[in-house]
UniProtKB/TrEMBL annotation:
Record has Manganese as a keyword: yes
Family: Belongs to the glycosyl hydrolase 4 family.
Site (Increases basicity of active site Tyr): 109
Spans traversing the lipid bilayer: 6-24
Binding-site list for Mn(2+): 169, 200
Protein name: 6-phospho-alpha-glucosidase
GO biological process, alphabetically ordered: carbohydrate metabolic process
Positions with a binding annotation for substrate: 93, 147, 285
Cofactor: binding details: Binds 1 NAD(+) per subunit.
The protein's required cofactors: NAD(+)
Organism classification: Bacteria, Bacillati, Bacillota, Clostridia, Lachnospirales
Keywords: Cobalt, Glycosidase, Hydrolase, Iron, Manganese, Membrane, Metal-binding, NAD, Nickel, Transmembrane, Transmembrane helix
InterPro entries assigned: GlycHydrolase_4_CS, Glyco_hydro_4, Glyco_hydro_4_C, Lactate_DH/Glyco_Ohase_4_C, NAD(P)-bd_dom_sf
Length: 442
């Protein structure tokens, strides 16, 4: 079996240790010879990299490890780039969440005005990574899960249409684990699903077990009573009280269309008033993440570095990262695994914009992906998706053209925003906050 060389871009991410450990745990199906970390913030990356260096030396001394802020070093001689960057880091996420809340609009990492602001920052960062990869390792694949994935995917479709990038999200995976649990199955891999939508904006229409038996009646019964709550999954990520609230609220989201199982992110579009009422404008999810995940990850890194050993570490292979290994293995070993990807529609959803980036099941192998045909989707979903996809396209056009008008239209069109005047107030604040990151808007 060939051994692969990987660069993790966003080496300073809180998810890096979990991803690295998941890679080491799966060396038998996805063999690696080299692992590199790349970040544009040397200070942030260093503790994570130094701790992982110790961990890798102890767990897999055969894997060559290095870390750098030099793009040439990072992107030379690689087969895969696993990208999870956050342009502007948590400081900007906090503003994305708090600025809309000032005007009574929800503040969320990837949805509504906050997601739009984050998109305007991410596009340039991802294009830069793609260009480095193209320059130094043109045959490599980028597996991207940097957010907001919907906007990033639309931007790369428009601006780098031939690039070898696959955009993917872990939310459906966690929710599928929960649904498998509702049905008494051990893993989502015992199910076959049909799903359609946009990233953080989709629905399951059919779910079968391995023998083709319909699992929807059991899942629907659970959704009606509990949403996604009371169903477990191996994920060690979506565990805090704010996530539990999202899983409970999925019960109400489900009731809006009991024929389909909704992605939990639809809460933000179907119940924005509820979300605002349950938000604290002084303390948002960014604060929670900084106070818990970020603090814990960096403390653990410093502990490992000080002791000079990773023995007894609390870091564990991140269940959240298993889909990344599945995707890499599908390409490397041509497994033809069926996975949800964010891809150009091009007729897969028959009654929807062929130029939209949609999230649908694909068969993944050595030469990329083949899409599963969905056919026509119902009017309710189609209406919601047309509005949302227009938002995402307007953001990308605003970024390309430096257009204030288009970004104002994008925020106005978001289902989370009540009027063009509120949209304008939020936009003007976001422009001020993002002046180091956004292109200048005219
Ligand atoms: P984080 O802030 O801890 O880490 C991001 C890292 O990216 C930082 O070290 C930062 O310095 C670095 N970075 C920023 N801009 C960069 C650039 N232009 N080039 C190189 N490095 C850059 O963030 P996190 O909470 O660990 O999340 C990382 C990313 O993963 C986010 O985009 C998040 O939304 C995403 N994520 C996606 C999914 C999914 O389902 N797709 C799941 C989990 C996390
Ligand atoms: C889910 C989504 C990701 C998102 C993450 C936010 O996993 O699929 O796209 O980034 O949640 O998690 P956080 O813990 O940072 O709020
Ligand atoms: Mn996601």
């Amino acid at each position: 079996m060939k051994k692969y060389s990987i660069v993790i871009a966003g080496g300073g991410s809180t998810f890096t240790p979990g991803v690295a450990l998941m890679l080491l745990d799966n060396k038998d199906r996805f063999p690696i010879r080299q692992l590199k970390f790349y970040d544009n913030d040397e200070k942030r990356q260093e503790p994570i990299a130094k701790a992982c260096e110790i961990l890798i030396k102890e767990k897999a001394p055969d894997v060559a490890f290095s870390y750098t802020t030099n793009p040439e070093e990072a992107f030379t001689d690689i087969d895969f780039c696993m990208a999870h960057i956050r342009v502007g880091k948590y400081a900007m996420r906090e503003l994305d969440e708090k600025i809309p809340l000032k005007y009574g609009v929800l503040g969320q990492e990837t949805c509504g005005p906050g997601g739009i602001a984050y998109g305007m920052r991410s596009i340039g960062g991802i294009l830069e990574l793609l260009d480095y990869m193209e320059q130094y390792s043109p045959d490599a694949w980028m597996l991207n899960y940097s957010n907001p994935a919907a906007i990033v995917a639309e931007a790369t479709r428009r601006l780098r249409p031939d690039s070898k990038i696959l955009n993917i999200c872990d939310m459906p995976i966690d929710l599928e684990e929960k649904m498998a649990n509702m049905c008494g199955l051990k893993s989502r891999k015992e199910m076959s699903v049909r799903y359609f939508g946009l990233n953080h904006f989709g629905w399951w229409s059919h779910i079968y077990d391995k023998d083709g038996n319909d699992l929807m009646p059991t899942i629907k019964k659970h959704m009606e009573q509990h949403g996604f709550a009371l169903a477990t999954s191996e994920f060690n990520q979506h565990v805090e009280p704010s996530w539990n609230d999202t899983f409970v609220k999925a019960r109400d989201v489900y009731k809006v269309d009991p024929e389909h199982i909704p992605n939990s992110y639809l809460k933000y579009y179907l119940f924005p008033d509820y979300v605002v009422e349950h938000s604290n404008p002084e303390y948002t999810r960014a604060n929670e993440v900084m106070d818990y995940r970020e603090k814990n990850v960096f403390e653990e890194c410093h502990r490992i570095i000080d002791k000079g050993t990773a023995e007894g570490t609390t870091f564990e292979a991140d269940a959240h990262a298993s889909y990344i290994v599945d995707l890499a293995t599908a390409i490397a070993e041509n497994t033809k695994e069926r996975m949800l990807l964010i891809v150009p529609n091009e007729g897969s959803i028959a009654n929807f914009d062929p130029e939209a980036m949609v999230e649908i099941p694909c068969i993944v192998g050595k030469n990329g992906f083949e899409k599963i045909t969905i056919g026509n989707i119902p009017r309710f979903q189609k209406g919601l998706m047309e509005q949302q996809v227009a938002v995402e396209k307007l953001v990308v056009e605003a970024w390309i053209e430096g257009s204030y008008q288009k970004l104002w239209q994008a925020i106005t069109l978001s289902k989370t925003v009540p009027s063009a005047s509120v949209a304008k107030q939020i936009l003007d604040d976001l422009i001020e906050a993002n002046k180091d990151y956004w292109p200048e808007l005219k």
